[in-house]
Amino acid sequence: MSTPDLPEELRKVIRDLCAPRKFPYTEEACYFVLEVVAQAVSSPTRTRLSHIRGQELCLIAARLAVETYGPFASMILREWGIRETMDLGKLVFALADGKLLGLSEQDSLRDFKGVLDLQEALTQPFHATQPIPLHLLPPIHLV
Predict the structure, then answer these.
(1) CA separation for the pair 26, 81 (Å, rounded)
(2) CA angle 82, 87, 89 (to 5 degrees)
(3) Whole-number Å distance between alpha carbons of 59 and 85
(4) What is the mean pLDDT of residues 71-79?
(5) What is the pLDDT of residue 48?
(6) What is the pLDDT of residue 1?
(7) Cys-Cys link to 65, which of 45, 73, 88, 98 (CB 3.0-4.6 A)?
């Protein structure tokens, strides 16, 4: 994922937030969540600019990761510190603390708990539905 065009003061907020001793997520994880929110608000199915619920954000994050990173989505998100949907919630709340996102009074970290098995959602699209018949595999020539 490329680094979005953000003003330097916003990049500084993210750099400060992601300092290793303070935060278990990388800057890329923060940029990923910002991209997920941008995708959510610009969705053609969204009829008006409205609040994005935690559950919706988790589903969009899984879809975006699979579409962007393919079979490597799970590995990449884990490298950034995102292992479960609760990690997405922690990122959203941290970005809100840094004034990069807004929250409603009804928002809670609980909204992100167990929304889906993130690792399964990121790998399931790439599971073979049926084993490849052996006769379709190329022959092995031992030297």
Answers:
(1) 7
(2) 140
(3) 9
(4) 95
(5) 61
(6) 56
(7) 73
